[in-house]
Specification:
This protein is α+β, with helices and mostly antiparallel strands. The chain is built from four helices and five strands; from the N terminus they run H-E-E-H-H-E-E-E-H. Helix 1 packs antiparallel against helix 4 (about 110-125).
């Protein structure tokens, strides 16, 4: 599957998703994205930096410790909320550097998008 088409299809199926991006955590880079409008590279860079922090960085270590999993420092999923909506960050369960990031207009839009996002991440990993 072409990951760019998968991103477009997923975003089209979920109107409250304003941006979905596929990246590589180890390279700290968004590789492709689909959005309602073109996103500046600086915003994509910040999105990837947030994914790194929440899934593998200092915040992931603190979250793991708070959950009683000290020393792990790897999260599979993180959700960040602010006044503009919700951001969902999905990492690969097998430790690969693949990541999907989604920006949503509201938190209620995250749950219906989660299964297809997980599926797309698995497909990207399998074909990558």
């Amino acid at each position: 599957m072409d990951i760019a088409r998968g991103l477009d299809d997923l975003r089209a199926a979920h109107p409250a998703c304003s941006l979905i991006a596929f990246g590589d955590i180890s390279a700290r880079m968004i590789l492709c994205s689909s959005g309602r409008r073109r996103q500046p590279q600086e915003q994509l860079d910040r999105l990837c930096a947030t994914a790194v922090d929440l899934l593998r960085g200092e915040s992931a270590v603190r979250i793991a410790a708070a959950m009683g999993h000290a020393g792990r420092g790897r999260m599979r999923m993180a959700i960040a909320l602010d006044s503009d909506g919700a951001a969902l960050f999905l990492g690969s369960g097998d430790g690969s550097p693949d990541v999907l990031c989604g920006l949503f207009d509201d938190i209620g839009a995250v749950e219906p998008a989660l299964p297809p996002m997980l599926h797309l991440l698995e497909l990207a990993h399998a074909t990558g």
